Amino acid sequence: MNIVLPDHNLQALTFDNRFVKNLPADPIAENFRRQIKNSCYSRVQPTKVAAPELVAYSREVAALLNLTPKDCTSDLFTSLFSGNTLLKGMDPFAMCYGGHQFGSWSGQLGDGRAINLGESINREGKRWVLQLKGAGPTPYSRNADGLAVLRSSIREFLCSEAMHHLGIPTTRALSVTTTGELVTRDMFYDGHPKNEPGAVVCRVAPSFLRFGNYEILTARKEFSLLKQLVDYTIRTDFPHLGEISVATYLQWFEEVCRTTATMILHWMRVGFVHGVMNTDNMSILGLTIDYGPYGWLEGFETDWTPNTTDAQGRRYSYSNQPHIGQWNLIQLANSIYPLINASEPLQEALSFYTSSFQQGWNDMMAAKLGFNSFEQNTDDTIIKELVAILQLVETDMTIFFRNLSSVETDQELKKEGTLPSSLMEAYYKPEELTDDYRKRMAGWLKTYFNRLKQDSSDPNVRQQRMNSNNPKYVLRNYLAHLAIEKAEAGDPSEVINLLELLRKPYEEQPGKEHYAAKRPEWARNRPGCSMLSCSS
Ligand code: AMP
Ligand code: MG
Questions:
Q1: Which atom of ligand 1 is nearest to the CA of 110?
Q2: Extents of the domains making up the chain
Q3: What pLDDT digit, counting tens, does each position of 150-207 carry?
Q4: Pick the catalytic residue: 26, 71, 111, 280?
Q5: CB 69: neighbour CB atoms within 10 A?
Q6: Are 429 and 468 a contacting pair, CB within 8 Å?
Q7: Which residue among 21, 64, 71, 353 is least packed, with the fewest CB closer than 10 Å?
Q8: CA distance 170 to 209
Q9: Under the phi-then-psi rule, with left for phi > 0, alpha for psi from -120 to 50, and beta for the rest, what region is 443?
């Protein structure tokens, strides 16, 4: 591996690899698949690739690392973030973790195709872990190849950045590069493998620790290592909690409950469905992590899941996400129990998740509807009735909420049986709107407008509040699909257009309205648009 000496911003990146310094390493240096006991990680080198090429980079993430657009378009950048070159101070490793997948314990999983390059400290003293996804096999790769394809890498890159700009806690993505090599994938596990372009994403986060990092240690009864990892986590990522004690462990768990609830509430607000909420995909920092078969609600079908593997059970459907968040937190509670030896305080923290989630849901829906604040007497009924109505006919969630802010209150309801024209844009099949439906929706709108009068807030202030909670532009499944098709044919321009569009999801962006339109009919059942799999 080349070690390059400093001579521009990339070479000036400074590393302080606390994780490897403070926690025990796998003593075996060879890179072969195995169970790794009594260790938190294994040192492993990225695999060199044939002909790396930059597809896109995020200038905001680059800025977090004090990198300029010039740095990002250099050959060195492409070489570094495809895994072909290492900088002085990088110390690559893959983490050991386990996880509950679809409700069952899976044992050791680990970074099977993710390699942490190191922890970079920027000029402001902020720490960012750089991680390559798809840079070759690691000891945790089990029976897979350690690689990633362009399709899923673009999806991860775009969605990480889109989520950030929506104000949702997430891991970030610095870059996506193609490797110049082909990777074989059977997208629907149905005996039709295809060669696809290989790619690497460079992800960036303060920490990539997951619930599964703690679970694996408890499952193996490695309790002193569990304590070491939890203490490390608190000192590194939760320093405000202070000196380590049993009380600190509980405060830490409570904070994880709170940040997890906040993250999932944001998902519900914008119609994001993660698709694989296994405990190895739950960040200890409450960040959205591991973008796989995720999707965005088009019609407000609350039991929708984009993940074909989950089509039967719908464990990870939109409306089940809050419950699964809690289920996953219970697994984390079980795994840290040996440090606490009492179940009551853990139960209390878990019930805090439920109550703070309910409160958060009420506040979030009140903000989406433009109320000054949630009023128990009236708003619970208003929200429940709306959620019920939106499911009666196929109604685009994003368009409905966005356009609700511009309805001229009751003016537009004067004529019996007519719904406001801006809301009509949200219906996929307007011909399905029966008289009963129209009456019910008009009734809801009347109650809603009366409720708004009660607030007597300035209509502009209300509209502003609604528009900052209801995005106009989200990464619609078919938009990502079209950008991927083009990039696979050698033209990444649509990836860059989407990245630009999604920087300002709450703004109107005149001239770009077509990106806010309903999903076209051709995309309804198209693989890659409405049907996705874990194969990536
Ligand atoms: P995921 O479903 O992406 O959360 O992955 C579950 C586990 O499988 C994690 O340990 C991943 O690192 C691993 N994994 C997924 N895809 C691959 C791959 N192509 N090569 C090696 N490991 C993989
Ligand atoms: Mg994962």
A1: 10
A2: 15-27+41-93+110-208, 212-367, 371-467
A3: 999 999 999 999 999 999 999 999 999 999 999 999 888 889 999 999 999 999 999 9
A4: 280
A5: 11
A6: no
A7: 21
A8: 13
A9: alpha
- Ligand 1, atom 7, lies closest to the CA of 109
Identify the H or E element spanning 89. Answer: none
- Dig out the tokens for 156 from the structure: 């991860």
Q: What is the mean pLDDT of residues 430-446?
A: 95
179: left (phi over 0), alpha (psi -120 to 50) or beta: alpha
Residue at 378: amino acid letter: T
95 alpha carbon – ligand 1 mean position (Å): 12
Please state, in angstroms and rounded to a whole number, the distance separating the CA atoms of residues 484 and 528. 10
pLDDT at 6 over 60: no
**Quick one: pLDDT at residue 179?**
98
DSSP letter string, 221-282: T-HHHHHHHHHHHHHHH-GGG-S-SHHHHHHHHHHHHHHHHHHHHHHHHHTEE-S---GGG-
Dig out the tokens for 93 from the structure.
Answer: 């490793």
280 is a catalytic site residue? yes
| H/E run at residue 354 | helix 344-369
Read off the pLDDT of residues 282-303 as tens digits, 9 standing for 90 and up: 999 999 999 999 999 999 999 9
pLDDT reported for residue 365: 98
Supply the pLDDT for residue 2: 60
Q: In this structure, which amino acid lies at residue 282?
A: M
Q: CA–CA separation, 81 vs 97, rounded Å?
A: 24
